[in-house]
Amino acid sequence: MLRGLILGSTLICAALPAGAQQDLRIEGDWTHTATGMVFPERLDNALRTRIHSYDAEQLDVSAGYALRRNGELGFVTLYVYPAPPNRSCAENFADIERNVAANYADVKLVSHGRWPSPSGRTPGAAYHARFTMTGTLDGKEQPLISESYLFCPASGWLVAARASWGRDSDLEQTFVDLLRGLAWPEPLDSAATAP
To answer: Which domains does the chain have, with CATH numbers?
Structure first.
């Protein structure tokens, strides 16, 4: 699907043995036991394509979704993982931005700013960046728009997302609708006092 989607949590888990990482074979909705986060199999225009665990305890996980709207196609990967100790939200997001820049030769930062918490309940609580680049989407190399998102709730978990679609498409609202449409449990949607 998308080259370079694995970010944030894999920076932390790079030293884990490959055997600790696995795609989970799940039919229907899947619940991240540690937080209560439910990743539905389908949500409006989004179809879940994958659940991946980066550790044996399934604390550090991602869920991939294909977005379809009016013939346009995009992919979103949502991540939930424990926050590394002694690192600010800004430092964690800077790592994500560096990872994007390192994986694409022609990447350009288009915008960088603050977004609401995943549910939209708390304005300006998350970090967001939009990039342009050339990458592979649905088996074809093409110009892309890519968005990175990080929310650092007070609970000590991190919520990240990476979304990409063709540059001639506009799926930003579909991406936002996916974030807002999920039932975010309190541990993943309560803003920290100093994000």
So the answer is: 30-189 (3.40.1000.10)
